[in-house]
Design goal:
This protein is mainly alpha-helical. It contains one helix and no strands.
Length: 68
Amino acid sequence: MFFKRIQHKRYDYQPRYYDPEKEDKHKLRKRINFQRGKYTRRKKNSRMLFYILIILGIVYLLFYTGIF
């Protein structure tokens, strides 16, 4: 034969540090972080409400003092 026959590349990969318990903990942490997303959303909404109240307070003071 003049040409080599093309074959797919083969490799034998084995993970060195696979720990099933650690994998389960990682999955649990991901699930817990997903549930924490709801909490952070509430926190962002409360910040937004806080900023709106500050702006309304400033506008009220400006009207009260007669600047506007």
